[in-house]
Amino acid sequence: MDVYDAIKKRRDVRSWFSDEKIPDEIISKILLAGHYAPSVGLSEPWNFIMIKDINIRKKVRDLVNKKRCEFYNSLPEDKKEKFEKIKIEGILESYVNIAVTCDFNRKGPDILGRAFIRATSEYSTVLAIENMWLAARSENIGIGWISFFNPEDVKKILNIPDEIKLVAYLTLGKLTEYHDKPELEEKQWEKRHNLSEYIFMDKWNNKPDDNFINIIKNSRI
Amino acid sequence: MDVYDAIKKRRDVRSWFSDEKIPDEIISKILLAGHYAPSVGLSEPWNFIMIKDINIRKKVRDLVNKKRCEFYNSLPEDKKEKFEKIKIEGILESYVNIAVTCDFNRKGPDILGRAFIRATSEYSTVLAIENMWLAARSENIGIGWISFFNPEDVKKILNIPDEIKLVAYLTLGKLTEYHDKPELEEKQWEKRHNLSEYIFMDKWNNKPDDNFINIIKNSRI
Fold first, then answer.
1. CB-based contact A112 B88, cutoff 8 Å
2. Under a CB-based contact definition with an 8 Å cutoff, are residues B10 and B65 in contact?
3. What tens digit of pLDDT does each residue of A143-192 get?
4. CATH 3.40.109.10 in chain A, residue ranges
5. What CATH number has the domain spanning B3-180?
6. Which chain A residues are closer than 8 Å to B195 by Cβ?
7. ipTM value greater than 0.95
8. A148-159 pLDDT, tens per residue?
9. A165 close to A9: Cβ distance less than 8 angstroms
10. Rg (chain B; Cα; Å)
11. Answer CATH for A3-190 from 3.40.50.10420, 3.40.109.10, 3.10.129.10, 3.20.20.70
């Protein structure tokens, strides 16, 4: 698939997972796409834990259900109704879950480019996740990133050591439906804004000239 | 360009920037690719500051030069020699610099999916950066991510408010050379490891069976 197509058609999905198996060869390609990501000082700080065991997944799903209630209760009344219609996880229905972690000690202490911004290790792991997401999209596989939990609770379930950071918990599967819009837009939870609102020139709050703003507004990928 | 091709051929570059102009239409497409990234709760927390002003860039380059010395001095003797050969920034030679920031207050307090992991906003911004990197590669434009500075110092130069996080400082330009290997591998700073070392099954430290390990080792994208 063309890279712009994959970027445009990629969705964060929790619904419409089919029962179809994903061949190991395809999972492997998706993981390899992640492994080709840039990493600070070539530190490759990532690990990928593939979770097929349904009992482990049930434990994670239980954590999410609990936090779903907590979030629901924290919402103002007008948002509660919208939130009720939104599915926030497909942990059991997806074919495989993948936990993605960051090891700050990988390849020793002298990581080139990390001395002054420690988070660059975590950021490397996130870059890998976007590669996986796009590779998956090109294989017609949906990914949902789940974050309704305290990461320390998930680390306990997966035996992840204290010094390793859990960056993401992903759910992957073939889909029965592909949607053009993000689910949160379809269900009127939130709107997308035009890119031109988010661009500055040379300094914060300094808007580009009208010519460039028009180019952005007319840009398509 | 095919998405796997872009993933495989993408490099983090500091050298070989040419003098060629990048048309605004192409910059716009790269920014739009970033804007199509997944964001927690559809919060789109990013801003992109395009920096063309050479005097601003000189100020950032001066910060980097200072930190380069600091890092050099912190290294053990055997690594100092290798580090001397490595170019760590192309701030002035590149066509444009882009600072990418994260606004934790974008679209209000009830961001769906962020309640329990605040960093998901930063992570969204990093996902956008990988989209930009791949889109740029498909346009034959190189990107280098610079992190040799205290982000607070760069924020002052760019007038970025206290409450906004500077996530990345990127340098973009057409290239005179395209390399197959990362520069840090070419200059023997660090080696890439095989993906199979980084994969676990169901729990941390639980290796996949030999069959899956072989599939990973034979996987190509």
1. yes
2. no
3. 999 999 999 999 999 999 999 999 999 999 999 999 999 999 999 999 99
4. 3-190
5. 3.40.109.10
6. 31-32, 35
7. yes
8. 999 999 999 999
9. no
10. 19
11. 3.40.109.10
